[in-house]
Amino acid sequence: MDEADTTAAAEDGSEKFEAGEGVLWSRFGDGPMPSLPKTAAIHRAFKAATEFGLPDEFAASLAHGVVDPAALRIALNSPTRINVSGGTIEVIDIDMYTPGLVPLPTNSRTMDMRVYPAGGAAGYFGPLTGPRSEAGRSCELWIQADSVEHALEEAKRAYDYVLVKNPLKDSVGARGIVMPVTVVYFEMRHRDGQPAMPLLGTADGSSRITGAHSALGLSNPRTTHYDLPANRDSYRRFLSDISSPDPASLGATAARRLRAMRNALITPARVFLRFTPQPGTGYGFARAVAAYVGMLHVDPPRPWTPTGKLEAMAESVLEVLRSASVLDDVRHDYLAGLLTPQAAEAAGLPTEYDEQAANALAVLLQSDLRPLVDQGIMEVTAKRSVTSPRRSDVVAELALRPTRSAAVTFPPGDPARERAGAMRAAYLRATHLPEYASRRWRVTGRSPDELLAGALAELVRPEAEQGNPDAWRDRLELAALAQYHLTGYESLKRDAMDNKGGDSRGPQDLLKLMLEDERGLRLLRQAVVDGRAGVAPRLVEEDGSVIRGRVDPEGELQRDPEGPDLVLTDQWLRYDGFPTGGPLNRPVSLESDTPSMKASRLQQQLLHTVDQIATMLEDLDRIEGPGSGMLMDQRGWPTSETKSAVERLVDAQSKFGYWGQVAARQVARVDRALGGGPDDASDEDDLGADSAEWDEE
Questions:
Q1: Rg of the chain over CA atoms, in angstroms?
Q2: Is residue 275 over pLDDT 60?
Q3: Cα separation, 499 vs 696, whole angstroms
């Protein structure tokens, strides 16, 4: 059970807890809490940890963080060894105080909201560096910040993000943390020379610890990351203030609040003590931890967001390439989005957004790097092999990092932010163009006109030379730059799902056709020119001149020298510029789509979808379990996953019921008009009453 599962398990209980009706289950309830450890017991545990081989700071943090120091001494005598990518980790399972833990501030769950220096946004420190570790056998990780302020800002951003995206405060307060969190020791280092802070962080379970901290009122990272770890007396007073009071002596509200804090105070934990690499693997502790956590969250059953999953794989790929000395620190940080535009320019690296993205494709999709890229992906997934689409998606997600990073700093509704969000799916699909990974090319920094001249020369080379891996250098560089703007302005969209009778080709298919056509190359050049100027790509003639005019309601192009410049659209590319040659249904334009037509089409699509849902439910219901009986009868379906779906189905049922009544009354009116009956006034009154009831629902 992970964080999402814990939420599901606690959902009913947390609702009752908030309503003041008690809870179904609580780890401590109104019973006694474990006694606060005595100082002498902590010292003995510290000594046992150092004798085990842990660094003094790790041993001290662990001895103060455990609920029972005697249990720690016993556990250290026989740690469990678990196999991970590249070696083994010695672990112990023990209860720990949550105020002695912090969420790992580089948690991949927060990838969606990170602001990277490569995005060029002013006023942001950028992500923290790490976690990293020394080579060979190791007990500790390190994360680096520019300063304490930098560390606190990123920790607070992660805290706020997790509370919104994966809120577990009420669940933890109602029942406590059920499943163990994964704890690692790390140092928070500061580039400005301030002392490093030794901390115990959750590599897995950050949402649960964030929820616990929220329930305990620990919303300020300065308290959890610096004040409490540095002042053991304050830390012990905080624990005592929660564990010592008797709930029976308090009023109902105060007792309920105390019960929530007590439930949040202690968590089961799996502590990673020491990593031992396999000889000759080149693995470090940080890489092993990333692989372990990735196995939990990148693939089911405990997924992050799609972006978070791909970002975790991308981080692993970069680390593998660095370990193999394919990337030096500067190139690694550039591809990771950790260099500002000024630093990238000083290093002689591309700084335009389209060039940054294209460079990631050119470097990481090289065929000779494929084994290392695949290794990085497999280290954080449960897959035994990597498909070409998965590989391309990982690289494309990394390519978009500077753009996404800049976009999250813009206010909601900003056009640049909207474009960055909308382009992702199409950009990832366009990167599936096979030639990106099978030909030799790179980002040269040449102008769009220079690239077009080279691309046109490549296009007219003899057919026998087209198979040469070097025959597409200029075309692919031009395509990679243009792809950024075409998808950003939705001139190139991902293939539509369930587009019966329409064009089902992906963006990569259209891009390939453009690379094999003179007009297509001119369209790509125009996309780069216009995109860099901050306008949507325009449509051009065969000679490259911009077309003026308009598009009529049927989607036909009407040229007019006095008209406005025409924008290149995905529809034009599919049905006019590069049609398949087969019978395709051109999408009906909104101007010619009457309300009745639109309603009829949506009704038919809805009925088709309902049939599909019914079929899938029947198929699920017929799956047999490993023993006797049906699988779904044995495993069920978590309420947290189905609650929203059920609410929508109930809402749909209400709409269907209301619309059915309206249709029945329409039929009744026609019958009365033909054969006589009550006047329409009473019917209107009835309909009005039903409408009011619907509004209340």
A1: 30
A2: yes
A3: 37
A 10 A CB-CB count for 171 gives 27
Q: Which of 72, 131, 158, 97 is nearest to 293 (CA)?
A: 131
Distance CA 668, CA 674 (A): 10
- Show me where the domains of the chain are located: 3-278, 305-409, 422-587, 647-697
Instruction: Give the contacts of 166 (CB within 8 A, at least 6 positions apart).
Output: 3, 4, 7, 109, 207, 210
The CA-atom distances, in angstroms, between 33 and each of 20, 29, 208, 236 are: 22, 9, 20, 14
Q: What is the DSSP letter of 533?
A: T
Q: Are 100 and 42 in contact (CB under 8 A)?
A: no
Nearest to 492 by CA among 567, 427, 417: 427
Task: Tell me if 102 sits within 8 A of 201, measured CB to CB.
Answer: yes
**What count of residues does the chain have?**
697
Gap between the Cα atoms of 582 and 590, Å rounded = 24
Q: Kindly state the average pLDDT of the residues 628-643.
A: 73
Phi/psi class of residue 325: alpha, beta or left (left: φ > 0; alpha: ψ in -120 to 50)? left
pLDDT tens by residue, 542-557:
999 999 998 877 777 8
Residue 320, both tokens: 């593998």
Query: At which residue do the structure tokens 């680390």 appear?
Result: 319
DSSP 550-613: EE-TTS-EEE-TTSPBPBP-HHHIIIIIS--SS---PPPPGGG--HHHHHHHHHHHHHHHHHHH
Alpha carbon distance 377, 384 (integer Å): 10
**Cα(145)–Cα(157) distance, integer angstroms:** 14
Tell me how far CA of residue 11 lies from CA of 25, 255, 647, in angstroms: 11, 21, 16
**What whole-number distance in Å separates Cα of residue 576 and Cα of residue 513?**
13
> Taking Cα atoms as reference points, which of 445, 448, 472 lies closest to residue 458?
472
Q: How many CB atoms are closer than 10 A to CB 695?
A: 7
Q: Helix (H, G, I), strand (E, B), or coil: what is residue 53?
A: coil
Q: Cβ contacts of residue 275 below 8 Å, gap of 6+?
A: 84, 87, 88, 89, 133, 137, 138, 139, 284, 285, 288, 289
Is omega for the bond preceding 195 within 30 degrees of 0, making it cis? no
Cα 609–chain centre separation: 27
Mean pLDDT of 587-612: 61
Calculate the alpha carbon distances from 444 to 69, 116, 131, 339, 473 in Å: 61, 24, 33, 19, 10
The end-to-end CA distance of the chain, in Å, is: 35
Place of tokens 């969000």: 421
Query: What pLDDT is attached to residue 112?
Result: 65
In DSSP notation, 458-511 reads: HHTS-GGGTTSTTTTHHHHHHHHHHHHHHHHTTSS-PPPTT-TTS----HHHHH
Strand partners, 93: 270
**Residue 163: alpha-carbon gap to chain centroid:** 15
Structure tokens at 625: 């379990």
pLDDT number for residue 500: 59
As a whole number of angstroms, the distance between CA 349 and CA 330 comes to: 10
Query: What's the confidence (pLDDT) of residue 515?
Result: 94
**Rounded mean pLDDT of 349-370?**
94
Position with higher pLDDT, 38 vs 15? 38
Q: Which two tokens stand for residue 313?
A: 């794989």
Q: Which distant-in-sequence residues (6+ apart) come within 8 Å of 653 by Cβ?
A: none
Strand partners, 5: none
Contacts of residue 469, defined as CB under 8 A and 6 or more positions apart, other chains included, come to: 438, 439, 440
Token pair recorded at residue 679: 């006047």
